[in-house]
């Protein structure tokens, strides 16, 4: 009787384990130079008063000009600045090389049968759409005004957010309804 009881327990445990297995299909997209999801503390800093650029050992890009009156958003140790729009609908990660944003866009192309929820533009104006998730980033919530972050000017308005690379003049405009590169 004990042998049958043991066999029944083993079979029941096996059935439970088989039911717990799952796989998620998809193709993650990542750039080898940039992490797909940073690991930072989850506290969310808030923007303060306008500040001067923090002292830096590296030179700013040649030809870069910080807009007058722009609030400087200093990068994390990783070199990224993480922001969220005032509406809370758009979140972005900004590096010296690119800006990537995620939002519930309404007019983005389909990627493998799913509407793209992410867009990235490089400092040279190359834009691409992706399906992804920025994860739990320590984003600063922007107000409707002008900011500067790692060589990009950020103009946040009710109509959307414009990111302009200060060195090249290229960038993108992002809103829920449209995304445009320039």
UniProtKB/TrEMBL annotation:
Residues 24-36 have a biased composition (Polar residues). Keywords: Signal. The keyword Cell membrane does not apply. Residues 1-23 form the signal peptide. The keyword Signal applies. Residues 39-69 have a biased composition (Low complexity). Residues 24-71 are annotated as: Disordered. This is Lipoprotein LpqJ. It comes from Mycolicibacterium agri.
């Amino acid at each position: 009787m004990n042998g049958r009881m043991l066999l029944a327990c083993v079979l029941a445990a096996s059935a439970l384990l088989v039911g717990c297995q799952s796989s998620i299909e998809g193709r993650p997209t990542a750039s080898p130079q940039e992490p797909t999801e940073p690991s930072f503390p989850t506290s969310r800093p808030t923007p303060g008063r306008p500040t001067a650029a923090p002292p830096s050992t590296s030179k700013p890009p040649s030809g870069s000009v910080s807009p007058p009156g722009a609030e400087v958003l200093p990068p994390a140790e990783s070199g990224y600045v993480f922001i969220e729009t005032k509406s809370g609908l758009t979140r972005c990660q900004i590096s010296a090389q690119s800006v990537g944003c995620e939002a519930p866009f309404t007019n983005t192309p389909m990627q493998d049968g799913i509407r793209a929820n992410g867009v990235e533009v490089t400092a040279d104006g190359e834009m691409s759409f992706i399906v992804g998730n920025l994860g739990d980033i320590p984003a600063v919530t922007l107000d409707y005004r002008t900011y500067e972050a790692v060589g990009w000017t950020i103009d946040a308005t009710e109509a959307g957010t414009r990111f302009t690379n200060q060195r090249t003049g290229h960038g993108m405009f992002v809103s829920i309804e449209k995304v445009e590169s320039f």
